[in-house]
Specification:
elongated, seven-stranded antiparallel β-sheet, mainly beta, Jelly Rolls, 2 domains, 1 helix
Length: 506
């Protein structure tokens, strides 16, 4: 009896130790962490939860020929998906052909069929692949050397590789067809190309995005959501809230302690300390869209919400309410009206409105009254936002044939284009010091007057005294990603939402 109790106690202790080890070894999104091909020196995967950075160490002879040796962190996936990550080697390295990157494998055997986006230590970058088990490996070499952002997409039987250097858009560098059996193992890898050496690779901003199926309407079939913060200086992103529900358009409070976002017609306060959403009382105004935001002093909240007027008309109207919540006050009389900016002195609201069949930028006293028109060009003018010093209103306009960022004086005069290039640019948000703006850029094949859901968009940053823009983030998102002012009050961080039709915790 005593022996049985001792064995039982040992079993319980071993179980607790195993559980503790599992908790200690947090592998983030990955459910499998293993060496492929049994290299002599074992590899490892570590996940820094506070910074959401993966560090992989690994040895192995190679990922090539008809059998592989490397370290692999993976998760099982089916269907279409997009893997994206920033990556770098740590240390000078022993072999110029050491490799790191993204990989999709049919199984965990050394001779598995696979495709990867591999960055070599010497900068060579290629889409490597094995189309038959235990067969030779082939590759499609990229024209870009030493990228530090890579993407590997599975779309049906097509595998697509894209890569970029930080600050630049993606370039497609390879495409091939492999009909993988389901499910596949997908994730990160590192290989030293030397059995006597262990190499280290660091990955940040790793995401698994599941795109919408063809012709899925993002309004009728909303996606899961990830509320993210990005450090402007480092480019590091951090998911602070993942939900299967659909959320949009985060604002940042004046004191930096909470965000406000919309979901299913309601507004929510999201305290950064507790990370538990709290519904804001907006009375009977319960059809809010993603055009809402705080005054510069942080005391008042503007809301755009769908409303039915007594004369039978319906559409979005602009309201204001104290940031603590309460009974909103209707400001605009006409529909539709979509709020986008407060004046720094809190006396004026600017918004996009359709009047006489055309969308323009309009303004109104924050107490209500008669509205006044600020733009009169044909086509869509949208997204007006004051600079913190009140000297300009930035907005986006399709008047040149593409959606671009413009600015004007507060009375509507001196309208000038300030963003350029091959993308359709939406919703410029000014930094607290007024020296920078961030905005959402859609590819040119998206209609210029449309900002739909379920798109591969870029978040870009541009100095207000320069026409040059650089990429901050590569996002699966679009409508609701960053429609409203989203800078932290210290100007160091932006908030936005990315979307996926898969598990938002990836």
């Amino acid at each position: 009896m005593v022996r049985l109790l001792t064995i039982t106690a040992c079993f319980i202790m071993m179980t607790l130790m195993d559980s503790a080890e599992t908790i200690a070894q947090n592998h983030g999104a990955f459910t499998s962490v293993t060496d492929i091909g049994n290299p002599k020196l074992k590899g490892s995967t570590k996940f820094d939860d506070s910074r959401q950075i993966y560090t992989l160490t690994g040895s192995g002879l190679n990922i090539w020929a008809n059998a592989d040796e490397f370290h692999f962190a993976s998760v099982k996936l089916t269907g279409d998906f997009i893997l994206t990550t920033s990556c770098r080697f740590e240390g000078a390295g022993a072999n110029p052909h050491r490799k790191m990157g993204l990989i999709i494998r049919e199984n965990l055997t050394p001779g598995s069929r696979y495709a990867d986006a591999a960055v070599h230590g010497e900068g060579l970058t290629s889409l490597q692949y094995r189309t038959k088990n235990d067969d030779v490996t082939d590759e499609i070499k990229a024209g870009l050397t030493a990228p530090d952002v890579i993407q590997l997409e599975r779309k049906g039987d097509t595998i697509i590789m894209r890569c970029a250097k930080t600050g630049n858009p993606f370039t497609e560098t390879g495409r091939l067809s492999i009909a993988f059996n389901a499910p596949v193992y997908a994730g990160l890898f590192v290989c030293s190309h030397d059995t006597a050496v262990v190499e280290k690779a660091v990955f940040h901003n790793f995401r698994i995005d599941v795109p919408a199926a063809e012709n899925v309407d993002g309004y009728r079939q909303p996606s899961a959501s990830r509320l993210e913060l990005m450090d402007i200086a480092t480019g590091n992103r951090k998911v602070i809230y993942a939900t299967k529900g659909h959320i949009e358009a985060p604002n940042w409070s004046k004191d930096g302690k909470f965000l406000i976002y919309n979901s299913e017609g309601l507004l929510y306060k999201f305290p950064l300390a507790t990370k538990t959403p709290v519904k804001i009382n907006t009375g009977e105004v319960v059809n809010s869209n993603n055009d809402h935001g705080l005054s510069f002093d942080g005391k008042m909240l503007a809301i755009s919400s769908s409303t039915k007027l007594p004369d039978g008309r319906s559409g979005s109207m602009v309201y204001t309410v104290p940031v603590e919540g309460g009974i909103p006050k209707a400001i605009t009389k006409n529909v539709p009206s979509y709020w986008h900016g407060w004046s720094p002195d809190r006396k004026t609201l600017v918004y996009c409105a359709e009047r006489n069949g055309d969308f323009d930028v309009w303004g109104i006293s924050s107490n209500g009254g008669e509205e006044f028109q600020l733009t009169k060009s044909k086509g869509l003018d949208d997204g007006p936002e004051y600079t913190p010093d009140g000297k300009y209103i930035y907005f986006n306009s399709v008047r040149t044939g593409m959606m671009k960022i413009w600015r004007m004086l507060p009375d509507g005069s001196n309208q000038e284009q300030v963003s350029f290039g091959e993308y359709n640019d939406w919703f410029a948000h000014l930094s607290p010091d007024g020296k920078s703006m961030v905005y959402v850029s859609y590819p040119a094949d998206v209609p210029a007057n449309s900002h739909p859901h379920n798109q591969r968009v870029l978040l870009r940053i541009q100095q207000t005294n320069s026409p040059e823009a650089k990429v901050l983030a590569y996002i699966y998102g679009g409508q609701g990603t960053m429609n409203v002012p989203s800078w932290s009050p210290d100007g160091k961080t932006i908030a936005f939402v990315s979307f996926t039709y898969g598990d938002p915790n990836y």
